[in-house]
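Hi there,

I know you've been waiting on this one. I reran it after we fixed the sequence typo, so this is the corrected version. Both the input and the resulting structure follow.
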Amino acid sequence: MSWYQEVFGFTLRWKIERMCSLAIAPNCGFHLVQISQFEPITAYTPFNYAVKDLEDARQRLLAKNVAVSPLRQGEPRRFDLTDLNGNMISVIEL
């Protein structure tokens, strides 16, 4: 939870024992759930974070010491990173 707050600036909406809700924007958020025996998804990115300026987002992540991939070929313009649990996330440009 704190990684998403620090890296992306998401705010905590609520938290219970194994689950929390983070706000991305008004009326938009997602839940993080603690799961025993969890295996991260590494074959594709189930979560895309859309930004207006891909280069700016990439530089901000690098400044926070987040390892990011090179820019990917094709559309939409994008790059990938992984969270602390090994889940892949794509950052795409609108």
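Quick highlight: The CA atoms of residues 12 and 85 lie 19 Å apart.

Best,
R. S.
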